[in-house]
Amino acid sequence: MLHALLRIFLLCGLLASGWAQALQLSATRLWPSSDYTRITLEASQPVAHKYFLLSNPDRLVVDLEGVEAGAALDALAGQLTPDDPFIGAIRVGMNRPGVMRLVLDLKTAVKPSVFQLQPQGQYGHRLVVDLYPAQTGDAVASPVAQSQPDVAEQPTPAKPAREAKDKPGTPQYARLITVAIDAGHGGEDPGASGANGSHEKDITLALARKLKQRIDAQDFVPLGQRVVKARALKADLFMSIHADAFIKPHARGSSVFALSENGATSVAARWLAKRENDADLIGGVNVDVKDPFLKRTLIDLSQTATINDSLKLGRAVLKEIGGVNTLHKGEVEQAGFA
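Predicted structure:
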């Protein structure tokens, strides 16, 4: 009799433990967009689940194991808007003991992506349901093709054959190059978080946008070409701005550099070797002379004066920077950047 009572108490204890482990969702969120719709189910622990698609009519069924009804789950249907491109209605109900069923009545066929996210910052465990359009064609090529100009609708008048001969070096392009920039993380997944509350998703998105601007802008200009442009415009000052990286996150500070004697000498040597400076002026000194030694002397004198002026200006810049940031060194440094 005692053993029977112990078995009954043990069974009741197990049942009570099972009931105590029933999970209520702490939050639900729904984000519709023209590209996809996302549903997020948040809980204090991972949500065991299964999902499958049904047709005639199209539906997505998500079975949530160990989840019971609650305010957060009940509020999900109220977040649905009529303009959602994929979901027509949301139904929630107990399918069988211990299994809550979420049914999404679909407006069109979809390709679901269901995955879990670990706790991050203010968010707990999350079960994410993304609904993408079920396209039979290339889902990437379609929007790219739409962004390209339709040359068939804008025929170009034929040009005389003589004009084609005038420009034999004109490149012919079959199509524009498409670059897909992926900003890591986003939405429910903020990625890494900084000590001051910054999120990786915000940084990657900002960098992706900046990168797009750079790609769409002018091509990279090599240093030598930048110098040529500066000389063509008779620039009085050539200032280059850089940002360094370091392995330690607490690294801080700014520096000011000027060209060193060695760097200037190497540039002068290359310049003289090319013999392209017969009509150039360096610092106001005409080096259009026949004697190579005199030419080199004139260049050295001009470069020495230029470097001295650069150091003088660099000290003034360093003083101003020191008022807003830590300085690596209290003097202008020199290096052979060429």
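Summary: The mean pLDDT is 75.
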